[in-house]
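Weekly modeling sync, notes
Attendees: S.R. (lead), two postdocs, one rotation student

Agenda item 3: backlog of single-chain predictions. S.R. asked that every request posted to the team notebook include the full sequence so nobody has to chase files. The rotation student volunteered to paste the first one in as an example of the format we agreed on. Action items at the bottom.

Example entry:
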Amino acid sequence: MMTIIPGINSHEILSLVKSVADNGALGVGYTMVRLNGAIGGIFTDWIQKAMPDRADKVLHQIAECHGGNLNDSEFGRRMKGSGNLAEQVSQQFKIARKKYLSGREMPKLNCELHEQYKDGQMKLF
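Predicted structure, as returned to the notebook:
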């Protein structure tokens, strides 16, 4: 699972997915950064000190992905974001998966291995 920060690592999606694919990954996922609570202030302070030349751009792009706020807590939207920028990130991941992870799938989970450790009521499940 990768955290995407617009303006910092969003341009590296293809190379990141290629790298994890080259190292044996079967799949890849992402979450759009969201700055809930005090994290928003901490991140804002850090980026203004560490990257003063692009701090405003990054903060505006994060807000663009979350309806104008640095955080969006609505289920189903909070992890991927919304809007044009979030859609571009989603499309980049679709392209990267198709290019570097095509034909790979997770192995089937073998639940029978744990049967011997179940006792009593656990055998019902």
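Discussion: group reviewed the output briefly. The two ends are 29 Å apart (CA to CA).
Action items: rotation student to repeat for the remaining queue; S.R. to check formatting next week.
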